[in-house]
């Protein structure tokens, strides 16, 4: 540890710099004088005081879409792994996996690893086990733990619980190579059975059967036991203190959320006296988007705006860490979920550190809450100490930690009392103190160190995170190095902490490390799900929004190797569960288990709902309800969704054995039930149907008998017959179909206008196939932009204004989990104005409203409606819509005249702009495609970008390419570090006619670009051009640009191609008419010889030619 000694001048300057910003409020709060005493660093305590950092909880379907990121955008998935688990000081040191029974655990279900007693445990269909495996590739020291919410129906005794756990743990070890480190033998958020806990621990330690090797047994016997994952203070503290056999059985005391100890202080004793780990095994992360949180205008208590702090914010999360340690010696904090990889609108939405909800686009939001956690993990060595106590894990120091924040969950620090935590190396060589100020008051602290292993008073690095200064990028003050701070002549350091900020001071030398000066990735555009007919790529030019036949047998899946890098590919189906249990693409279950499935004796994969109560029974559940899964984009507007359905159970079971399709699903308080989906068509194999609006049946019938108004002749009522069910949603009109026949049309006077597609069933095996979501001609298929109400600026380095509010508004954080980003903006009187400038044809306002607001609407400076009404609306749906503007740039102002307007989100409606016609004969940059499958843009040394990562079968689409009268050849700028490949030139679809094939050779490197050329035939006019790439396995080539070469244009009368019209051409004409020759030695010979443009070559053309040569006419009639 070497630090510069600052001059007195620099000391004074540094202190002045740190405290130069005046407090937002001058109310004084108590200062704190901190003594960091090396004698209080308990190096002999290897479990209770070692700082273990933070953990990821994967459970209740929160990771439902995460493996789709791995499949569709593996580079983004690897980036996520590195940010969470990578580096010298990883943020996350633990993955906790919740096991379930395919029924709802709040947001959704966890896949059962054993659905019946005789099934071999399958961990590949459980996203949590895959995540843990990949995370351990990044950090081999990562810990993994499991517990259960509810068990499958067959698990009805403790013996069977043990069997289920053991088989699952060994399946994970044999599949992925890691042994689970910790198990809670109890049930999540229930009081522990202490007798069973001891029995379970003994069985783990002594089990000697069923192992493949001595090493496998030894690892299994070393698994440690956790209790109890209760909500609030653990009920078992006193038992562990008084019962030595229980302490011997249990390694970790864990409970959720509450930061406090019991009244006897038992958890402090367990940590300090008995050296037991104490965890906050389910902790509060951040309930918002920190990027836009500072746009709130809340007063807490008196100054407007809370920066990155305030209710449910990242500073509150940080204070929970401090208070959890101070009050109950928690040294490990697990976040549920750390990664929100399920569709918005579900239960417990918007409480994560990372949002990863659009696997088709690769969009990921890394929240500023991660930076808060880095203020802890980046300034200490966190983790688990080894048996020899030589790992050097830092200890938390109770005597140098304190908080006056009130509450237990949430923890409220807006009273301005001190809040800090000290971590120190066990050899006393270094320390870091983290200060959190979640208040409007400036705080001042002093630190003095004694009995440390170093001499003197080294300068401390000072790191700060707070909201951006006005006009600066949102993250410009994240993890900002403020310089070094020196002690005064008495060895005292003085630290000033600004309002709503976190500061870490440390003896470590970190300021020159690149990662400390590299911001988290900033989220990019959230591309709407709009694919080709195979459900792959991004294609806005066809009529398909999404399609899936659930057969992934031709798809591959990345292999994550050591260090978290992609080292190869594997079978998509095998890696995601196997042919009987494949995690399907883009589905997010809210109840039940929907998986791709290959029936015995068939080669046709289907989507199957896998829970059948008549065969396996049903276990318990958090939210009771029938199976349903969502797929798609919450910005979808107008579409027709259809799917084929079939049954395996030859009974309608009193109406409980059905298949259904839903439309415009968003979520909300009933998201886990079918009545949370606004429009549903239910179908029974006997021909029965029922159409539901907001959970209520508004029409029903039977297509066999004709009840309900529609009869379909020769309808097959076999239970295993396939039928197609569909819903078409166009503005406020909803039409239901069975086998292509319209059975009911409904007009909704209070419509829900946007949302995903649902597939639903009863708790019986039910099959779905050939899902198709189609656009509706003449109607916008989706929002092109959707903004949170606090999105008042973009995320660029030089922020650009977005939503502009004026007049009386309340902009609040800390709202419902069913409000977008848990924020709302509410008008507080007449004259409140919202303005937005956009490109499109309309604008919608979404949010929970009572319909009382009357609005004045101005478009481009002109009032278009002096008293527009609003609709009563549920969470996440429309209260006001403005449509029908001419496509283009518009500025819309909404003024509240009376009533109250609540804004949760603002969405832009746009037609799909017609593709601009491009000349085939001008150079077209490869990256300027209109659609693609499989490729990625890459940097090109020749300038701009190239298309790369091209594999066999990938393609790019260029719309409306004008070939005029024809092209004769294709020229492309390409490179290949492998064996190259081929570029097929196809017209108007990926299966369209091939007009040319260009071979690309090996060029010696990805940046070694060369020109290649090939002939082209049979193309003229305007077409969509598909470049399909073919070749061997692996990456084939990079494409920088391309263009076509024009086909030579015929000169009328020039029959030999010498650019002149003379007697030789006249002689050729005569020979042709006499039959001596069959054609002319020139391209477009017919056009050249048809001198009078009548479409035929005959004596009239010969006579015209003679007149031209004799000078009777001066030019030929059709000469060009």
Automatic annotation (TrEMBL):
GO BP: cellulose catabolic process; galactosylceramide catabolic process
* Presence of the UniProt keyword S-adenosyl-L-methionine in the record: no
Q: Which Gene3D superfamilies match?
A: Dockerin domain, Exo-inulinase, domain 1, Galactose-binding domain-like, Glycosidases, Golgi alpha-mannosidase II
Enzyme Commission code: 3.2.1.4
Q: Which InterPro entries match?
A: CBM6 (IPR005084), Cellulose-bd_IV (IPR006584), Dockerin_1_rpt (IPR002105), Dockerin_dom (IPR016134), Dockerin_dom_sf (IPR036439), EF_Hand_1_Ca_BS (IPR018247), Galactose-bd-like_sf (IPR008979), GH (IPR017853)
Give the reactions, separated by semicolons, that this protein catalyses: Endohydrolysis of (1->4)-beta-D-glucosidic linkages in cellulose, lichenin and cereal beta-D-glucans
Q: Keywords for this entry?
A: Carbohydrate metabolism, Cellulose degradation, Glycosidase, Hydrolase, Polysaccharide degradation, Signal
| PROSITE patterns in UniProt | CBM6, DOCKERIN, EF_HAND_1
Q: Name one GO molecular function term.
A: galactosylceramidase activity
What CDD domains does UniProt report for this protein, alphabetically? CBM6_xylanase-like, Dockerin_I
Q: What cellular component terms from Gene Ontology apply here?
A: lysosome; membrane
Instruction: Tell me where the signal peptide lies.
Output: none
Q: What is this protein called?
A: cellulase
């Amino acid at each position: 540890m070497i630090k510069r000694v600052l001059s007195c001048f620099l000391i004074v300057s540094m202190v002045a710099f740190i405290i130069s910003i005046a407090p937002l409020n001058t109310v004084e709060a108590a200062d704190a004088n901190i003594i960091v005493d090396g004698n209080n660093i308990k190096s002999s305590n290897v479990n209770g005081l070692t700082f273990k950092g933070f953990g990821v909880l994967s459970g209740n379907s929160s990771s439902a879409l995460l493996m789709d990121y791995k499949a569709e955008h593996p580079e983004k998935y690897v980036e996520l792994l590195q940010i969470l688990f990578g580096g010298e000081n990883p943020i996350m040191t633990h993955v906790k996996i919740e096991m379930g029974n395919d029924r709802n655990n709040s947001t959704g279900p966890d896949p059962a690893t054993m659905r019946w007693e005789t099934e071999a445990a399958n961990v590949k269909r459980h996203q949590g086990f895959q995540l843990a495996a990949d995370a351990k590739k990044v950090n081999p020291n990562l810990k993994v733990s499991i517990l259960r919410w509810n068990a499958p129906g067959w698990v009805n005794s403790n013996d069977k619980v043990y069997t289920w756990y053991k088989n699952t743990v060994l399946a994970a070890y044999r599949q992925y190579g890691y042994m689970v480190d910790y198990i809670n033998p109890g049930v999540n958020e229930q009081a522990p059975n202490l007798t069973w806990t001891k029995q379970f621990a003994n069985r783990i330690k002594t089990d000697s059967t069923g192992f493949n090797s001595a090493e496998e047994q030894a690892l299994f016997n070393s698994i440690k036991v956790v209790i109890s994952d209760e909500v609030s203070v653990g009920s078992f503290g006193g038992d562990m203190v008084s019962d030595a056999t229980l302490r011997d059985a249990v390694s970790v005391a864990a409970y959720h959320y509450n930061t406090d100890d019991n009244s006897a202080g038992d958890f402090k004793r367990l940590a300090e006296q008995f050296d037991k780990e104490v965890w906050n095994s389910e902790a509060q992360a951040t309930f918002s988007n920190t990027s836009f949180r500072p746009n709130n205008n809340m007063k807490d208590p008196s100054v407007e705006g809370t920066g990155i702090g305030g209710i449910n914010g990242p500073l509150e999360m940080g204070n929970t860490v401090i208070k959890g340690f101070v009050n109950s010696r928690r040294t490990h904090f697990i976040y549920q979920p750390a990664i929100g990889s399920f569709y918005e609108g579900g239960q417990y939405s918007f409480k994560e550190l990372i949002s990863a909800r659009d696997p088709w686009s690769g969009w990921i939001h890394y929240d500023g809450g991660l930076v808060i956690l880095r203020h802890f993990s980046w300034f200490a060595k966190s983790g688990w100490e080894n048996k020899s106590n030589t790992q050097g894990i830092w200890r938390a120091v109770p005597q140098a930690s304190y908080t006056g924040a009130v509450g237990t969950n949430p923890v409220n620090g807006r009273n301005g009392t001190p809040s800090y935590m000290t971590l120190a190396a066990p050899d006393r060589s270094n320390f870091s103190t983290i200060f959190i100020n979640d208040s409007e008051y400036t705080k001042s602290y002093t630190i003095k160190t004694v009995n440390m292993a170093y001499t003197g008073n080294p300068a401390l690095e000072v790191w700060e995170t707070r909201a951006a200064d006005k006009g600066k990028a949102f993250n410009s003050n994240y993890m900002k190095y403020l310089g070094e701070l020196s002690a005064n002549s008495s060895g005292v350091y003085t630290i000033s902490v600004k309002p709503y900020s976190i500061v870490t001071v440390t003896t470590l030398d970190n300021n020159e490390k690149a990662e400390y000066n590299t911001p988290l990735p900033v989220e990019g555009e959230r591309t709407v799900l709009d694919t080709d007919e195979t459900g792959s790529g991004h294609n806005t030019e066809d009529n398909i929004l999404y399609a899936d036949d659930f057969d992934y047998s031709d798809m591959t899946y990345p292999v994550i190797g050591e260090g978290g890098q992609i080292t190869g590919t594997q079978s998509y189906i095998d890696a995601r569960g196997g042919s009987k249990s494949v995690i399907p693409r883009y589905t997010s279950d809210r109840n039940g288990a929907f998986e791709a499935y290959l029936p015995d004796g068939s080669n046709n994969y289907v989507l199957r709902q896998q829970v059948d109560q008549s065969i396996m029974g049903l276990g318990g559940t958090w939210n009771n309800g029938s199976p349903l899964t969502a797929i798609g984009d919450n910005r979808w507007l107008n579409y027709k969704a259809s799917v084929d359905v079939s049954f395996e159970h030859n009974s309608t079971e009193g109406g409980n054995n059905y298949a259904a399709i839903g439309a415009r699903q968003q979520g909300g308080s009933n998201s886990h039930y079918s009545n949370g989906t606004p429009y549903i068509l239910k179908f029974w194999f006997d021909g029965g149907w029922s159409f539901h609006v907001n959970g209520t049946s508004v029409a029903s019938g039977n297509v066999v008998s004709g009840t309900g108004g529609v009869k379909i002749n020769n309808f097959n009522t076999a239970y295993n017959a396939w039928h197609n069910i569909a819903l078409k949603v166009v503005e406020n009109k909803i039409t239901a179909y069975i086998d292509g026949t319209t059975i009911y049309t409904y007009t909704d006077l209070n419509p829900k206008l946007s949302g995903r597609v649902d597939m639903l069933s009863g708790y019986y095996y039910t099959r779905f196939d050939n899902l198709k979501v189609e656009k509706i001609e003449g109607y916008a298929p989706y929002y092109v932009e959707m903004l949170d109400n606090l999105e008042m600026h973009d995320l660029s380095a030089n922020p650009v204004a977005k939503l502009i509010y004026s007049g009386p508004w309340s902009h609040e954080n800390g709202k419902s989990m069913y409000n977008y980003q848990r924020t709302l903006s509410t008008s507080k009187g007449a004259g409140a104005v919202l303005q937005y400038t956009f490109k499109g044809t309309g604008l919608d306002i979404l949010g929970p409203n009572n319909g009382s607001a009357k609005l004045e609407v101005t478009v481009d400076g002109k009032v278009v409606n002096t008293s527009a009404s609003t609709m009563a609306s549920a969470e996440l749906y429309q209260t006001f819509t403005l449509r029908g503007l001419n496509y283009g740039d518009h500025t819309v102002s909404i003024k509240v005249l009376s009533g109250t307007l609540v804004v949760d989100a603002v969405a832009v409606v746009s037609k799909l702009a017609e593709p601009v016609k491009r000349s085939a004969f001008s150079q077209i940059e490869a990256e300027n495609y209109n659609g693609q499958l499989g490729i990625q843009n890459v940097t090109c040394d020749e300038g701009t970008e190239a298309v790369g990562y091209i594999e066999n079968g990938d393609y790019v689409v260029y719309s409306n390419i004008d070939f005029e009268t024809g092209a004769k050849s294709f020229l492309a700028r390409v490179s290949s570090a492998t064996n190259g490949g081929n570029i097929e030139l196809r017209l108007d679809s990926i299966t369209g006619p091939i007009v040319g094939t260009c071979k690309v050779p090996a060029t010696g490197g990805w940046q070694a670009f060369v020109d290649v050329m090939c002939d082209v035939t049979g193309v003229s006019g305007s077409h969509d051009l598909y470049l399909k790439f073919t070749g061997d396995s692996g990456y084939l080539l990079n494409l920088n640009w391309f263009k076509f070469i024009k086909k030579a244009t015929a000169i009328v009368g020039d029959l030999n191609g010498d650019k002149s019209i003379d007697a030789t051409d006249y002689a050729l004409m005569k020979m042709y008419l006499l039959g001596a020759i069959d054609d002319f030695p020139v391209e477009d010979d017919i056009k050249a010889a048809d001198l009078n443009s009548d479409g035929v070559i005959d004596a009239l053309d010969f006579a015209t030619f003679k007149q031209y040569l004799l000078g009777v006419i001066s030019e030929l009639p059709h000469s060009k």
